[in-house]
Write a structure and sequence with these properties.
By secondary structure, this protein is α+β, with helices and mostly antiparallel strands. The protein folds into two domains: 171 residues, Protein Transport Mog1p, Chain A (3-Layer(aba) Sandwich), CATH 3.40.1000; 76 residues, OmpA-like domain (60s Ribosomal Protein L30, Chain: A). 23% of the residues lie in helices and 32% in strands. The protein contains six helices and twelve strands. The strands form three sheets. It has a six-stranded antiparallel beta sheet. α4 packs across α5. 36% of the residues are buried.
Length: 278
């Protein structure tokens, strides 16, 4: 699944070489990262923990009884790399996020969560509680967060947080977790993230869906997610493509989705279904 950010023409630009970092230790860390730094960015803070239990946030956060609670998270043990860059003056938090996300999306991946602005919640919580770096605090309107699973070998979970602070300084932070043992739990995006992917790309492939076995755990989860996505945006209409598209559409109708919002499209792909925004 691919997520393109608004005003993101830099996705189409050739990737520029990152600034070579002066310290040998810093360079060794950077060489293992899933992304190259934004051009002329400066490392503001970095940390490597070779063996740690870590929970990566893949849903909204809020404070409950003075504790940060995440709607969803991935808990695993492994190597954690945390690095924050200060982005050169004249470039925005969205520029930095777009540059990093474009690199991650070159890998086989699953987008798990994306939010921007006030929908991300308190920047103070992200900076001080989740990411543990106070300089990442800024106005809620100026933040973006993205979490993905990279399905390479080794498996990695990567989160990105970009912020324009009140003094106009821009930071990009990355957490990269390489689990000691791959996480085999099936993970899904949130309905809101699913809608963002569909609105940005115009289409969405659900490769593991088998509507003729609608009682399967995976298929039921995707049907529920698509239903919730459609309920969250009453204007959204979709075309369902695939050999099993009639069965998929019928399942959505059975869940109460209005027929005028659904179309049966092409018989390809043979396995799974492909959604198109209409």
């Amino acid at each position: 699944m691919y997520l393109r950010l608004r005003n993101c023409r830099s996705f189409l630009r050739p990737t520029m070489l990152a600034l070579m970092l002066s310290s040998p230790a810093t360079y060794a860390v950077a060489a293992e990262l899933a992304i190259k730094a934004y051009p002329r960015a400066e490392v503001a803070q970095e940390q490597v923990q070779p063996d740690v239990e870590y929970a990566m946030v893949i849903g909204s956060i809020r404070r409950i009884n003075n504790q940060v609670r995440a709607e969803r998270e991935v808990l695993a043990e492994g190597e954690l790399v945390r690095i924050s860059w200060r982005i050169p003056e004249g470039h925005s938090a969205r520029d930095a996020m777009t540059h990093a996300a474009a690199q991650l999306q070159q890998h086989p991946h699953t987008t798990l969560f994306f939010c921007e602005g006030r929908e991300c919640g308190s920047s103070s919580l992200w900076a001080n509680q989740v990411l543990d770096y106070s300089r990442l605090y800024g106005p809620e309107d100026n933040q973006l967060y993205l979490a993905l699973r990279l399905d390479d070998d080794p498996q990695r979970f990567v989160s990105l947080y970009a912020i324009t602070r009140g003094n106009r300084e821009v930071y990009l932070h990355m957490d990269q977790l390489t689990p000691r043992e791959p996480v085999t739990e099936v993970l899904y995006p949130t309905p809101a993230t699913l809608a963002k992917i569909l609105n940005a790309d115009g289409e969405l492939l659900l490769p593991a869906v088998t509507p003729d076995a609608a009682d399967s755990t995976v298929t039921k989860a995707w049907l529920d997610l698509v239903t919730r996505m459609l309920r969250s945006d009453a204007r959204l209409r979709i075309q369902v493509n695939g050999a099993q598209s009639p069965a998929f559409v019928q399942e959505l109708l059975d869940r109460g989705v209005a027929q005028q919002r659904l179309e049966i499209g092409e018989p390809e792909p043979q396995t799974g279904v492909r959604l198109e925004k209409r």
